[in-house]
């Protein structure tokens, strides 16, 4: 049985404020992150999360793979960077952004 405190993955900081370093992310960290996103978005079976982040990015993986599995929702890639399409509020597409850049979608 996996324990909450055990490492689930490792990720490396960019080093923008110092030397890049590896950080261990626990199962509890990931579950807590997903719980906060689900609660903040009022996720239910009809929720569709949208994100431009690739699944090899930690938040892309958590938000587009693990979160939809855990909460039995769906996820959609934002596959375009066309300004008009990117700036369109996700609520128009009945989607909830699954990324930390909420301000991009608030007008």
TrEMBL record:
Similarity-based family: Belongs to the ATP-dependent AMP-binding enzyme family.
Name the UniProt record assigns to this protein: AMP-dependent synthetase/ligase domain-containing protein
Pfam families in UniProt: AMP-binding
Boundaries of every AMP-dependent synthetase/ligase domain copy: 3-71
SUPFAM superfamilies referenced in this protein's UniProt entry, alphabetically: Acetyl-CoA synthetase-like (SSF56801)
Lineage: Bacteria, Pseudomonadati, Pseudomonadota, Betaproteobacteria, Burkholderiales
InterPro entries: AMP-dep_synth/lig_dom, ANL_N_sf
Organism of derivation: Burkholderia ubonensis
């Amino acid at each position: 049985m996996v324990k909450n405190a055990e490492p689930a993955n490792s990720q490396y900081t960019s080093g923008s404020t110092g030397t890049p370093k590896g950080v261990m992310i626990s199962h509890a960290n990931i579950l807590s992150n997903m719980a906060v996103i689900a609660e903040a978005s009022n996720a239910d079976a009809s929720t569709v999360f949208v994100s431009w982040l690739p699944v090899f990015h930690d938040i892309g993986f958590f938000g587009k793979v693990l979160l939809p599995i855990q909460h039995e929702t769906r996820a959609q890639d934002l596959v375009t960077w066309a300004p008009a399409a990117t700036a369109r509020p996700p609520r128009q597409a009945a989607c909830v952004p699954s990324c930390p850049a909420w301000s991009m979608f608030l007008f």
